[in-house]
Specification:
The complex is a heterodimer of chains A (about 250) and B (about 260). Chain A is of the alpha/beta class and about 250 residues long. Chain A has nine helices and nine strands. Chain A has one domain: 3-Layer(aba) Sandwich (Rossmann fold), CATH 3.40.50.300. In chain A, strand 6, helix 7 and strand 7 form a beta-alpha-beta unit. Classes of the chains: A alpha/beta (about 250), B mainly alpha (about 260).
């Protein structure tokens, strides 16, 4: 049973400018009692999530919308446990997989096969487990002989196929995906959709941040909008998307 | 026990549990670096051999030193220095370089220093071939104290692991650290007993012992070459490990969750 609960979770995020990251300015600040170089330690704190609460249970397919910088990626990273909340409580039950940025964990000089093992082990698999996933990944990515070539020769769509295949290969119970499907071609999008439907059918949790309303409409059962650090349920999202002609 | 401390402890133990993965990844990093080269990682061995051979013959002639004592001294010293300096210098990039991984996968943060140290251990293993060859040419006269090299080396790695985590965190927050370290390392090199023995400085030898890395070199090299380390070397290295780990743990505990934002 997968379970993901946020209770009044807030995440504030310091943005360090060049001066705040300078050791000399920090010394100056201490030496001058913080008067002369008052600006030196100036960091801007952005409140990315403000008292967010929700409860996701097995079988939930959640869509996240929001304009750029609304905090979708921060929310996904907080769900994954990469970012730690400043206040509030998070309950996570279930193996988490993230497919957030293209190419993370891959070494461009190594072949596709070697990268499958690398990424698998980074996700916590043993070498044996990672090896056992290879046939399935070969089949899913349809990359064929390209898997013998270094990843730097791949197009972004190909890297994404590989990442998505590895990310979903170990049956995650909570799958967090950031908008990245744009790079896949139609054939891959169909396969990815099918795989995500499988995951949802297996009563897992799936969270997907995207700007692609048609895709959100077809994959997600509930859609939330992130705005000013708050999450709002959009109950009529599906109705609206259906009314609009597909663009 | 506070929940923060429980999380910190979990980070460290989970990272240690991923030792096989760290080993696999550092090996694949090493392979990736020498991809498309014929000798592969053995370029390291060759590079060290050339350096040691060249310096050894030039300096032993220049300083009129006995080759049989000077060349093994220099070989072990240079290789150890390369190991220590490599870890310390690259630690200033520890979290910054892995930013993409840290922001995308939930991996315990202590995993990164482990991976870095393992990669340098792999390099060291390649370089050890040169030590072996030098010892075949100039056999050291080992006595029973030579076994101290094993706990000695372990103590060095224990010290380097807190240094790596400490520097990695500090450098992620304050970006001058990297340049500062790069600038201080040559100075520390000349303050380490790599090209000479500390005793050769006579009264001035205390300068060498201001440098923490001198202890690391002494603790491993002396038993390997068959002479005892000065009495204070072991206690200082042990105290350094305890204090260093204590300070680093306090810092890691209070700032660990900020690291993903710094990078």
């Amino acid at each position: 049973m997968a379970h993901l609960v946020f209770e009044n979770v807030s995440v504030r995020y310091p943005i360090y400018n060049a001066r705040a990251q300078s050791l000399r300015h920090q010394f100056m600040r201490i030496a001058t009692g913080g008067k002369i170089a008052a600006e030196a330690g100036h960091t801007v704190a952005v409140t990315a999530l403000n008292e967010v609460s929700f409860e996701f249970k097995s079988g939930d397919a959640i869509g996240l919308v929001g304009h750029n910088g609304a905090g979708k990626s921060t929310l996904l990273r907080t769900m994954a446990g990469i970012y730690t909340q400043d206040s509030g409580r998070i309950i996570r039950e279930g193996r988490i997989a993230t497919v957030l940025e293209i190419g993370s964990g891959m070494d461009p000089e190594l072949s596709g096969y070697e990268n499958i093992l690398r990424m698998g082990m980074l996700m916590g698999m043993s070498l044996k487990e990672a090896r056992s996933k290879i046939p399935e990944i070969e089949e899913f990515t349809e990359l064929g002989d390209f898997l013998n070539l270094p990843v730097r020769t791949y197009s972004s769509g190909m890297s994404m196929r590989l990442m998505f295949a590895v990310g979903t290969s170990f049956q995650p119970e909570i799958l967090l995906v950031d908008e990245m499907f744009g790079t896949g071609d139609a054939g891959f999008q169909e396969k990815a959709k099918a795989r995500m439907h499988d995951l949802i059918a297996n009563a897992e949790i799936f969270v997907f941040a995207s700007h692609d309303h048609a895709m959100l409409g077809s994959l997600c059962s509930r859609v939330y909008e992130l705005k000013h650090g708050k999450m709002n349920h959009l109950p009529d999202f599906h109705v609206k998307t259906l009314e609009q002609p597909e663009s | 026990m506070s929940s923060r401390w429980i999380e910190t402890r979990r980070d460290i133990f989970e990272a240690l549990g991923r030792l096989p993965a760290a080993l696999f990844l550092s090996w694949s990093d090493t392979k990736a670096r020498y991809k498309r080269s014929m000798l592969g990682p053995f370029w390291l061995t060759l590079g060290t051999a050339i350096g040691v051979g060249g310096l050894g013959f030039v300096w032993s002639t220049l300083f009129k030193m006995d080759k049989a004592t000077f060349i093994p001294l220099l070989t072990v010293g240079l290789i150890l220095w390369g190991f220590i300096a490599g870890i310390v210098t690259e630690s200033s990039q520890l979290f910054i370089q892995n930013a993409q991984l840290i922001r995308n996968l939930r991996i315990p943060l202590f995993f990164y220093p482990i991976k870095l140290i393992l990669r340098h251990l792999i390099n060291l293993a390649h370089n050890a071939i040169v030590i072996l060859i030098v010892f075949l040419i100039y056999p050291p006269d080992w006595h029973w104290g030579a076994w101290l090299v094993i706990p000695g080396f372990f103590l060095v790695v224990l010290n380097l692991s807190w240094m790596s985590l400490f520097i990695g965190m500090f450098a992620a927050r304050y970006r001058d650290t990297e340049t500062a370290i790069a600038n201080f390392m040559p100075l520390l090199f000349f303050m380490s007993p790599v090209l000479f023995k500390a005793e050769q400085l006579g009264v001035g030898s205390w300068i060498v012992w201001l440098n923490p890395f001198s202890y690391f070199i002494s603790i491993v090299r002396d038993p390997l070459l068959g002479h005892p380390s000065p009495d204070f070397v072991w206690p200082v290295a042990i105290v350094m490990a305890i204090l260093g780990w204590a300070v680093t743990l306090v810092m890691f505990n209070s700032r660990r969750t900020r690291i993903p934002y710094w990078i």
